[in-house]
Amino acid sequence: MTEPQDSYPSYSRESSFRRAIKNINLRPYMTGMLPLFVLAHFGHHSVGAMMNPLTPMIRNDLNLSYTQIGFMRMAFGLTAGLSQLPAGLLADRLGVRIMVLLGVTGVAIAGFFLGFTHSFTWLITFLVISSIFGAGYHPASAAAISSSVKEEYRGRTLGLHLVGGTSAFWIFPLISAPIAAKWGWQVPYLALSIPIAILGVVLYILIGKRARSIARRQQEEPAEIETSEAVVDSIRWREIIPFIIVSVFTGTVVQSVSAYLSLYATDVLLVSEATAAMLMSITPGVGLFAAPIGGYFSDRFGGMKVIIIVSFISIPLIYLMGIAPTVTVLVILMVAMGLIMNTRMPTSESYLTSNVPVNRRATIMGVYYFSGTGISAPLSPVIGNLIDRIGFQKTFGYASITTAVIAVACSLFLWRTRRYNKYPEISGK
After folding, report:
1. Whole-angstrom Cα distance, residue 63 to residue 60?
2. Within 10 Å of residue 322's Cβ, how many Cβ atoms?
């Protein structure tokens, strides 16, 4: 006698799971421009990825205070922020190839000269030059990637692109920490900038060849016009501005306090400088799997809803990082923060590029990155000065309260506008 199919629920679930695995198509992510942009993103963050882990060594070598460390980070971030707006406009006109060349090779060349730095003035100078060269990469790459995929896959695709950047922030600390511990913090910049500069030139050539190949194929086999993505004729600022506020301010506060975690590890938890440098690879290392998953959540549940959730989860995490009693606790918090931050970034890029005209995407991404770095950069010396005066615990506590105020204010605004159905993913309409 044949058993009913329902009598084998586990078999049915297993079969469904196997079918789902078989139906996964990775080809769109492994072909086209995306792999090249992942490599470009990795090279683009070479200088910045070594800054946090090497900060304790830079501080001791140049005899800097927490406030001066804050000004160092402000110079790097504020220059990048101020450069984002003109760089975004240029990216829409000059194209992505030149921005990749400047954003990888140009950044690496400035990083190379950091290896000859023995004063605070020259350190600031070459960090500023690096920021100027790299300003156009993110607006150009986000716009190019967003235009190459369907809207329903945009979040996870941008999440995969983010893997290149997050990889830099855990690979470079692991490589640079032992080199710096033996030969000084300048040597990693000298040694690692040369291959990155070469990588930028190679990518410039490969992106050009790939672009010409795609153009020829489209001429020979014209692609069908995609109808799944709604055409956006103008920028709907009433929708864009609240999103930028909650995303940027949450990310700004988190990044500003996270920049001092290596110093927290050395000065409060009393770990060695080399160990603190390697600890800084934890949060970005989480991005290897968190960024694509975060992008999927954005595609599945909607960007605004995901950003609000991320903002509220960040509140206790920021506070707890200022009172972490052991390295183990700090590591756990850094893993959690990695999940949060690597969800926020692809979600923000996907939401913004999906709600602006195609020919304005690089421009709006320039506005977004300008807002983020333009705010976080001046905040860095403020955080450093507060740590000098009142310590880590109170400073991180105030940062947590600030995040809570921002998250609650934006959530209330969105709740009040639900009647107009501007945000169906929040209102549930």
Report:
1. 5
2. 23
Cα distances from 283 to residues 258, 262, 377, in angstroms, run 10, 12, 20
CATH class of 29-217+228-427: mainly alpha
| SS3 state of residue 95 | coil
Dist CA 17 CA 363 (whole Å) = 42
- For 8, 22, 404, the CA distances from 12, given in Å and listed in that order, are 6, 15, 45
**Which amino acid, residue 56?**
P
Residue among 424, 258, 247 at smallest CA distance from 349: 247
Helix (H, G, I), strand (E, B) or coil at 63: coil
Is residue 259 helix, strand or coil?
A: coil
Average pLDDT score over residue span 366-388: 76
- Indicate yes or no: pTM above 0.70: no
Of residues 186, 161, 168, 178, the one with CA closest to residue 48: 168
Q: Say what the pLDDT of residue 320 is.
A: 93
298 touches 351 (CB < 8 A): yes
In this structure, what token pair is assigned to residue 355? 């709600």
Asked if 107 and 133 count as a contact pair (C-beta separation under 8 A), the reply is yes
Among positive and negative, which fits the CA dihedral 332, 338, 341, 343?
negative
Spatial separation of the C-alpha atoms in residues 186 and 340, rounded to whole Å: 32
Residue 333 · residue 324 · CB < 8 Å: yes
79 in Cβ contact with 132 (< 8 Å): yes
Buried b (16+ CB within 10 A) or exposed e, 345-361: bbbbbbbbbbbbeeebb
Q: Count CB-CB contacts under 10 A for residue 400.
A: 21
Residues 83, 374: contact at Cβ < 8 Å? no
SS3 300: helix
Inform me whether the pLDDT recorded for 34 exceeds 70: yes
pLDDT of residue 113 exceeding 90, the answer is yes
Mean pLDDT, the chain, integer: 77
pLDDT at 373: 66
Residue 256 tokens, joined: 């500003």
**b (16+ CB within 10 A) / e for 169-199:** bbbbbebbbebbbeeebbebbbebbeebbeb
Check: CB of residue 56 under 8 Å from CB of residue 352. no
First to last CA, the chain: 49
| DSSP class per residue in 41-54 | HHHHTHHHHHHHHH
